[in-house]
Automatic annotation (TrEMBL):
InterPro entries: GcrA. Gene3D superfamilies: Homeodomain-like. It holds the Pfam family GcrA. It comes from the Bacteria. This is GcrA family cell cycle regulator. It comes from Bradyrhizobium symbiodeficiens.
Length: 156
DNA sequence: CCCTGATTCGC
DNA sequence: GCGAATCAGG
């Protein structure tokens, strides 16, 4: 891989679809793959994989001009915090799928991050060593929980 | 108040 | 086709 950076390759799309069907939020999927949330949503829309919102009445057709009102750079701040702000677009934390296990093999100190292999039908989990009272390992916990001050429980 | 989902538009 | 921008809803 000299200088090629294909945004959406087969594996990427498979992972996207698997995570989407797994019930993960677009933010989780984006963080896991390493792209922005809109990129995931855009790709899903292109693939006709919307979760269920076929609005018929198009009301947001009004496009007067680019009027920056509040500058929605919230995603960028979050992504930067997750990735380390000054590093390559890779998942932060020691995430290795060598310890992946099934749901039945999950323990209290095992990372419960859903791992979907783009080749097998078996759905596995991260299975890494997670600290006590923590559902994910150090790497995935950062993806699951927002580094912001508000610790809101995920609704997805 | 903020975040998530989906569509639309520019490149 | 991809990604950012935007809107609507929760």
């Amino acid at each position: 891989m000299p200088v090629l950076s294909p945004t959406w390759t087969d594996e990427r799309i498979e992972l996207l679809k698997q995570h989407f069907e797994a019930g993960l939020s677009c933010r989780e999927i984006a963080a896991d793959i390493g792209v922005s949330r809109n990129a995931v949503i855009g790709k899903l829309s292109r693939l006709n994989l919307t979760r269920g919102r076929t609005i018929d009445d198009r009301k947001v057709q009004d496009r007067p001009a680019r009027a920056p009102r509040t500058v929605p750079r919230l995603q960028y701040e979050m992504l930067a915090t997750i990735y380390g702000d000054t590093d390559a677009p890779v998942v932060a934390g020691p995430i290795d799928e060598a310890n992946r296990c099934s749901l039945l093999e999950l323990s209290e100190n095992r990372c419960r991050w859903p791992i979907s292999t783009p080749g097998a039908e078996d759905f596995c989990f991260c299975g890494n060593s997670a600290p006590d009272s923590q559902p994910y390992c150090s790497g995935h916990s950062r993806l699951a929980y927002r580094p912001n001050g508000r610790a809101r429980v995920m609704r997805g």
